[in-house]
Amino acid sequence: xxxxxxxxxxxxxxxREIRNYPLTKxxxxxxxxxxxxxxxxxxxxxxxSGLSDPTCGKAMKLCSEDIAEMEWVCSAIEDVYRxxxxxxxxxxxxxxxxxxxxxxxxxxIGVSERTLxxxxxxxxxxxxxxxxxxxxxxxxxRRGRPVPVQQ
Length: 151
Known about the structure:
Layout: H1 8-19, H2 21-37, H3 54-62, H4 65-83, H5 86-97, H6 102-109, H7 113-131, H8 139-142
Helix pairs in contact: 1-7, 2-4, 4-7, 5-6, 6-7
């Protein structure tokens, strides 16, 4: 399978992100709750290093790079899922999120395995474009399917 503009490593990483989407959403939620539930810092004691305001400290942790990156990846996947056809959404759900085998997904949605491979190529290309990993000019872009970015 050939993904235009994507190295095999990038393609594998993007497919891994799509596959891990449900877990990533759960991790974001748990991490946020963990930060919000954490004990407050002592306000009356002078801080050694860092912030003395507990609310500000929690806000800074909520905006941390790891949470922001996970949210950015999830946002890209959600955007692609939202603009995809029902059939493509079903591929994402069955192949990536429920981890059915290739032939099982093809049978379930009623397409050939080759068509399913093309659909996967399009899904990965769209997520890669939305994440900034590739530029317009890939096969799915030439077919007139740009991914709109909601502001």
